[in-house]
Design brief:
Number of strands: 0
Radius of gyration: 32 Å
Structural class: mainly alpha
Helix content: 40-55%
Distance between the termini: 136 Å
Length: 173
């Protein structure tokens, strides 16, 4: 009976290589890795808008359960709207990239999952998102229960209006 023999290797790893350069299996392996990296890069670049929108949606979903109880429903809606707008504009490539680092710094400051987001945090985050998308910031809101009257402002006169010209009698001095 013949003794079983081990199958022969496709190449002899102990044999000295002839000539300069890398061995054929190493070149093929590196070429395959390079091809996979190139395909991955093309797929990521082609789907970058959708990935960016997903990123904004994920951030919003992770922050929402951490909102403090004193955040009003209107502020919650403004934050949701700001994230939605930022995601939509990022997907379209219309976000002001110069303002993105400020948003990233703010997210980093709020990244502790044990930290509750205060009203001030929510207002600042909403303002930063509005700046990122180029949306004008709304006037600041008063805290709940604070109903002090602000300085009243008279409406501006229409363009071309001169004081006293709207049928008022001329003053005699």
């Amino acid at each position: 009976m013949a003794e079983p023999s081990t199958p022969q290797a496709p190449f002899d790893p102990t044999a000295p290589r002839g000539g300069p350069g890398c061995s054929k299996p190493l070149l093929i392996g590196c070429g395959m890795v390079l091809l996979l990296v190139a395909v991955f890069a093309v797929v990521v670049i082609a789907n970058l808008p959708a990935i960016t929108r997903w990123w904004f949606n994920t951030i919003e979903a992770s922050l929402e359960p951490r909102l403090a109880p004193d955040v009003t429903p209107a502020e919650r809606q403004r934050l949701k709207s700001a994230f939605s707008s930022a995601g939509r504009l990022a997907e379209a490539g219309k976000v002001d990239m110069n303002k993105l680092p400020a948003f990233q710094r703010q997210l980093l400051a709020l990244s502790d999952p044990k930290r509750r987001l205060s009203r001030k945090d929510v207002q600042e985050l909403t303002r930063t998102l509005d700046e990122l998308t180029g949306k004008p910031a709304p006037p600041p809101t008063m805290p709940p229960g604070d109903h002090r009257p602000g300085p009243s402002r008279a409406p501006a006169p229409p363009p071309g209006h001169t004081p006293g010209a709207a049928g008022a009698p001329p003053s005699s001095t």
